[in-house]
Amino acid sequence: MSSSENNTVVEQNAVVKFWNFVFFDLGDKRTNDWPLLGSPVPGLTILGLYLYFCLSLGRKWMANRPPFKLTKTLIAYNFIQVVVSVWIFFEALDAAWLRDYSWRCEPVDFSRTPKAMRIAWAVYMYFLAKISELLDTIFFVLRKKDNQVSFLHVYHHTTMPMIAWGAAKYFPGGHGTFIGLVNSFIHIIMYTYYMLAAFGPKMQPYLWWKKYITTLQLGQFLATFLHSCQLLIYDCGYPRFAMYFVLPNAAFFFWLFSDFYRKAYSNSKAGSRRKPSKGSDTENNNVDKNCNTKKPVYTNGTAEKIELNGKSPFPKQNGVTHRVNGNGNLKTE
């Protein structure tokens, strides 16, 4: 065997040893063999296919197709997400945070006691929940809601499964479970909103609290950032290197969601106070200074004039035809 071949074998062995060290030796022996946790390849493959479908293939496939309604599917899907989030939230409280967990600094219990395994299983289920939430974006694509497939949405749905994978594989328990606790609580509210919204326009009057979901999400990122910062001060055995991923990501999420809130809600308030834009009835001189339209107004659900025997069934007042509701009531001046 030549020296170059020997070097290749040595390099390959070094890569294999490094791979095994990072993804097996460092991993939690209790969860190493659980589905999708053995190596990062399955999870990264899922995320790669997700990104390819949502950013390329799915949009091309839907280009000449009508959007899917998916009403019943969305109701069922969001209901399941609510149930899963409630379960994770309850497990995090009942097994840890309302028991003997320290709010300052809590190490991971790597034992196989029933309590430790219960917490590890809840962390694993949280990871699987993040994988299942990739369907959020897929449903947007199938419904041709491309405006919803924003950088914020895709980044959030891509990074959260990776963070949850790392937690389930390396430290399923301890201080970091606070993130899952708060996030599951937010998702109970968020997916309840989505489930109700899926019922259609009849539910819209009861969904006035939509913007407060974003406010809660901002509070979530602030709370998890401050809670995680304690590990930079206190040492209880929880791996500090995890904070180099968690803290920048929490700060970036906070900035992204703040920007979304400002554009979605603050700008909408400012826009409501602006003068009518070009293309509006006022700008095109279809409305006079007394806010009366200069053209006939029909409110029969269309822009068409209804005539019987060649005549309009509605009387004219000052040269303007009026009908103010679908019950046939006429406006008089």
UniProtKB/TrEMBL annotation:
Family stated for the protein in its record: Belongs to the ELO family.
Q: Topology versus the membrane, per the UniProt entry?
A: Multi-pass membrane protein
Region Disordered, residue ranges: 269-333
Q: What is the protein name for this chain?
A: Elongation of very long chain fatty acids protein
One GO biological process from the UniProt record?
A: very long-chain fatty acid biosynthetic process
Ranges of Polar residues compositional bias? 318-333
Q: What is a GO molecular function of this protein? A: fatty acid elongase activity
Where found in the cell? Membrane
Organism whose genome encodes this protein: Bemisia tabaci
Q: What is the lineage of its organism?
A: Eukaryota, Metazoa, Ecdysozoa, Arthropoda, Hexapoda
